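worker-3 :: picked AI-2E family transporter
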Amino acid sequence: MPDNDSPQKRFTTNQWRLIGVAAAMLSLTVIAFFLLGVFNLLRTFVQTFYGVLWPLAAAGILALIFRPVVEFLQTRARFNRTWSIITLFIVAALALSGILVLVIPVLVDQILLFIEYLPDIVGRISKSLAETYPKVVDFISTRLGEENLARIQDSVSNGITTLLQRSEPALNNIVGFASRTIAIGTGLAIIPVYLFFMLESRRNLGNDLRSQLSFVREDWREDIIFLINEFIGSVVSFFRGQIVIAFIMGVLLAIGFLIVGLKFAIILGLTIGFLNVIPYLGSIIGLSIALPLAYFQKDGGGLNLLILATVVFAVVQVIEGYLLTPRIMGKTTGLHPMVIIIAIFFWGTALDGILGMILAIPLTAFFVVAWRLAKRKYLDRIQKENTASSQS
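worker-3 :: C-alpha cells ->
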C-alpha cells in the first residue's frame, strides 16, 4: 500500500489541528447538553424531595465537621464511640444553652423594640418620600411631558394592584404556612438523629466505594474515589472555616454597630454574621437592612450614622478579606470572589433554594477539581497523541 494512502499522510498538520479542534468542540457541546440534562433532572429531584434532603445534607455536613472530635474523644479520652458521640452532644447542648441564656434576653428585647420602633421608621420613610416625590415628579414631567408621565403612573398603579391581587391568596394561605412551619420543625428535630447514626458509622468511604464499584475499570474507579474524597475535603474545610468566620464577623459587626450608636446592633450583627455562612449573602442583605435603619433612625440617625454604619461594614469586610479568610480558610477552594458570587446564584437556581446556595462553593470546587483531573489525565493525553500523529 503506498505511503500516501496512510492516515498520517492524508492530512496536513494544519488539517489535523483543525480536526482536533472540531472534535474537541463537538465533545464539549455533547458534554454541555449532557450536563444541562443532569442539572434539570437534579433540580426536579431536589424540588420533589427537598423536605427529605435538607435535613440529610445538614446532618451530613455536621457529621463531616464533628467526626474528628468523636475520634479524638475515642483515642485520647478512651471513650467508646457511642459515649464519645453522647459526650459531644452533651457539650454542644450545654454550650448552645449557655449562649441562648446570654443572648436570647437581649435579642428578645431588641426584637420587641424593633417592632415598637417599626411604625416610626415607616412614618419617617413615608415623610421623606412625600417630601421628595413632588420634586421628582416635577423633574420627570419636564423631561417626559404630562401625558407620558400619566401613562407611567397608571402602569405602576396597575402593576401594584395586580401584584397585591396575586399575593393575596398566598397571604391568606395560613394552612400552607403552618404545614411548612411543621415541616421545618420536623426537619430540625430529625437532624440530631441522622447525625448520631452518621457519626456512629465506622465504615471507610474509600474502601466501601472500591467494593461497590468493583465492576468499573480500576483507573476510573480510583478517579471517582479521588473526586469524592476531594469533594468531602472541600465541604469539611469550607464549612469549618466559614462557620468560624461568620461567628467572628457577627460579633465584630454587633460591637461596631453598638459603638456607632445604631439601634438593634446585636440582632443585626449576629443575623448578618449567621447569614455569612453563605459567602456574601449576609453582607448583601445586611447592607440593604442596616443602612436604611441607620439613615431613618429617630435618635441620632441621618447621613452621619449612615456613613458610620458603612464604615463598620467596610472595616469588618477588610478584616474578613485580609485577615480571617487567609488565616482560617487559606486556599481551601482557590476560587475567585467573582466566581463565588456567580456560583451561589447558579447553584441556588439549579438546586432551587437555600440548599443550593449552601452547597455552592463545595460543588463548584468539586467541578474545578474534576476539570483539572480530566484535563491532566485525558485531554492533555489526547492532545499529545494528536500532536504526535500529525508530526509522524
